[in-house]
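Request:
You are asked to prepare a plain-text protein record giving the amino acid sequence and the backbone structure tokens, at your earliest convenience.
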Amino acid sequence: MKRLPALAVAGAIALGIAATPALAAPKANKATPAQLAAMTKAVQSSPVAGMNTVPTANYAVRNGMVYAGSSYWGKVSIASRSSTFQGAAAVLVRPAGGSAWTVVDVGTSDVGCGVAPTGVAAAFKLGGANCGIGNGFTPAPQTLANPTLTGYQLTMRFFKYLNPQYQAQLGTFLADAFFIRRANNTGANKAQYLANHPTYNDAVLRVDNANYGEGLLTVSGVNWQTTLPNNYVPVMYTYAWVNGAWQLLSFARFAPSITLPAPATVA
């Protein structure tokens, strides 16, 4: 069957995340009702394959599965309820430390094969023996020696790429499924952000927490600018290992504070 066009999720999205080695017997567990509800919300709001433009009455999200090797990968079936919509499947990721899911691929065949690690692909029965990232790319590291340092370095690279002379590098650094959520509850996808983004020449970042697993690195902390006093912004960044390199998958900014908040902890 023909594959639906995905926003080529590169970054856990097009997380063409280069793979962690497959487990001897990869397994997937049935999603809980809460997990399936969160995945359904992610599918309905996702720009991947234009799902956010499809009336929700035209389909039903069913058969949620969560990878047993970690709880960061999920899969759902998208059953058609209309003659104008072809049923499909979706692969999702859940950044470490959070409960929200992000769709990384949608389609009718070979879904997730260019996105998910080989172990995940096998557990979800996404395709044949060659489905999944792991051949021809540098595998995602199984562990990070210093997730906090890696998260800090990646975020400072992001700040650098926001300068006009690095627009091309910024486009490569952002995953195809990139999305930013601002404190005022507005958001932007990759194309929208590339067309209109700020510049940080004096950014400071304090990393409070960094969690890594299955090719996803979630970094939370506080960001501020030396030229803008009394404006401390709690932030969360999620990076994905894609085809041998890191990409920024999502970025959230929360309500600013006039004083520097105490370091937060994540359970």
